[in-house]
Design goal:
The chain has 510 residues and is mainly alpha-helical. The protein folds into 2 domains: 159 residues, no CATH class; 280 residues, no CATH class. Helices cover 64% and strands 2% of the residues. A two-stranded antiparallel ribbon has the order 1-2. α4 packs antiparallel against α5, α5 packs antiparallel against α6 and α10 packs antiparallel against α13. The longest helix has 28 residues. It is globular, with a radius of gyration of 24 Å. The protein starts with 11 loop residues before the first helix and ends with a helix. 38% of the residues are buried. It is a multi-pass membrane protein.
Length: 510
């Protein structure tokens, strides 16, 4: 039986004509409509032409309309969660409100995850749990921002906490607009309230000059003209079209469930099934590539997402970017994958969890990440296994890589090998993420003898005994790295730290 969908079915004929489920058709159509309204929001409704109240109201009305079209009466869950959390923000002292809001918001989300897992019809559909995951990030980050801005000592805040600190609880209109704004309601990504408020009011045009000799060691504000987003929007739309075509015409021929199908397993060799695993898991990423890139384009079309200029004077449109596809597909390590996948969620995890938990930071952060995603067994299996392979990959890089740096040819061989193994591992753990339930998960991994689990465990066991080879960089390489680090530190990106939480953890615990 197909999963129940509460959104509009007015586009059902189009759904049947193109062969896509009605939930996906509604999503794509509404995002295209949002692109048009994004242009309107940037031009005739720009911050220099209308008041911030008008922009808040228009964004709210459009967001609610889009939400009702795609989710119907289930939109009430976002209203209920937001109403409860906003009441706490208004009534409770800033010293405790962040804890209360976090528990309430996460508790509500977990209840919805339980309902989806155990009481809803089986099958994948775009349901309200997705937007609710985004609003959970919004209300919790706002609550922690208010705690930082109104209660904590500013001298003890991290750079990220200083940037996202909120001095006053937003008005009801500001809060509602922040939760329901039309560019990000359906797919996100979640943004910090300080960034959203700056976009609505037009104050995102004020940037800080990094401290230099010319500014006597102090940052100075300056104003810039926000460029047209036409170029980044068109590039992202082109990417979306490519992946939609892959999703429609290629993905149906390689369904993920065949990885655990007994008949498929019995009739195909081990090596063929590994190839199928890699191909099917790569294709499964298409829906994330489409959704997140299209959401990014909608934000940019409305003028949201501009992050200043880099050291070369090039305009950056990655303030709300959630994924960097090229970096993922060409990555040479699992770290490269985690650095560029669901980037805003990684920033949220770092902001409200990793930077604040005094003990067991890694365990707490990964536990929160798993709970936020849902309660399907496949999610937890994926996160636990990812921890094993992250550790194994780090050990290989530390102990083995230096032996391949003596020549360009050897390094190329190492890079090709690590690219292959990285994408094999990502596909391997991705099977559990897509199969979701224990029975098919165990069938698949049993059919391949848990071979990468065994290999990862063996690597962790033997790496401590592998002698470490010292590698000395040439003067030119040292100068190049120093220049790169300096440029990364000085890039003007509105104070945003986009480092992935997993990379942050690895650096701290390396």
């Amino acid at each position: 039986m197909a999963p129940i969908y509460d959104g509009s079915e007015i586009l059902l004929p189009l759904s049947k004509a193109c062969g896509l489920p009605i939930d996906q058709v509604n999503f794509i159509v509404i995002e295209i409509v949002a692109l048009f309204f994004g242009v309107v929001f940037r031009k005739p409704l720009g911050p220099e032409l209308v008041s911030s109240r008008t922009r808040h109201a228009v964004s709210l009305i459009l967001g609610v309309a889009f939400g009702l079209f795609c989710f119907g009466k289930k939109l009430f869950h976002i209203v209920a969660q937001t109403a409860v959390c906003y009441t706490c923000l208004k009534l409770l002292p800033a010293s405790v409100t962040h804890i209360v809001v976090f528990l309430l918001a996460m508790g509500y989300l977990i209840i919805i995850h339980i309902d989806r897992t155990f009481f809803s019809e089986p099958g994948y559909t775009i349901d309200i749990s997705g937007p609710l995951m985004i609003t959970t990030q919004k209300v919790t980050s706002l609550a922690f921002g208010i705690n930082d801005g109104c209660h904590r000592n500013s001298e003890k805040l991290t750079d990220l906490q200083k940037k996202t600190a909120v001095k006053n609880c937003p008005s009801l209109l500001e809060m509602s607009s922040y939760i329901f704004y039309f560019q990000g309601l359906l797919v996100g990504p979640a943004v910090f309230f300080s960034d959203y408020k700056a976009f609505i009011e037009g104050t995102d045009l004020v940037k800080q000059v990094p401290p230099t000799a010319m500014t006597k060691g102090k940052p100075e504000p300056f104003y810039v003209h926000k460029p047209s987003p036409l170029d980044p929007v068109m590039k992202k739309l082109a990417t979306v079209i490519v992946w939609i075509m892959i999703h429609i015409f290629i993905l149906p021929h390689y369904p993920a469930y065949l990885n655990a199908d007994p008949g498929f397993i019995a009739n195909h060799s081990f090596l063929y099934r590994l190839w199928y695993m890699w191909l099917s898991m790569t294709l499964c990423k298409a829906r994330y590539y489409v959704a997140w890139t299209l959401g990014d384009a909608v934000h940019n079309a409305s003028g949201f997402g501009w992050a200043g200029v880099d050291r070369f004077g090039r305009h950056k449109w990655d303030l709300v970017t959630n994924i960097k596809i090229m970096n993922i597909e060409t990555g040479l390590s699992i770290k490269d994958f985690t650095d560029n996948w669901n980037m805003q969620t990684s920033l949220w995890l770092r902001h409200i969890c990793y930077e604040r938990i005094p003990i067991q930071k890694v365990l707490a952060t990964f536990t929160l990440s798993a709970l936020w995603h849902g309660i399907y067994p496949g999610y937890y299996f994926t996160f636990i296994c990812s921890g094993i392979f992250l550790s194994a990959g780090r050990q290989v890089r530390r102990k083995v890589r230096p032996y391949f740096l003596s020549s360009t040819w050897l390094k190329s061989v190492y890079d090709v090998f690590t690219w292959l193994t990285t994408h094999l591992v990502i596909s391997y753990v991705g099977v559990a993420f897509n199969l979701l339930y224990w029975q098919p998960i165990l069938i698949f991994y049993g059919s391949v003898y848990f071979f990468l689990h065994v290999l990862g465990t063996v690597i962790l066991a033997i790496m401590p005994f592998v002698p470490t080879k010292e590698f000395k960089m040439s003067a030119q390489e040292m100068a190049s790295r120093s220049s790169l680090e300096s440029s990364n530190n000085n890039e003007m990106v509105n104070g945003k730290q986009t480092e992935d939480i997993h990379s942050f953890i690895l650096k701290k615990h390396a």
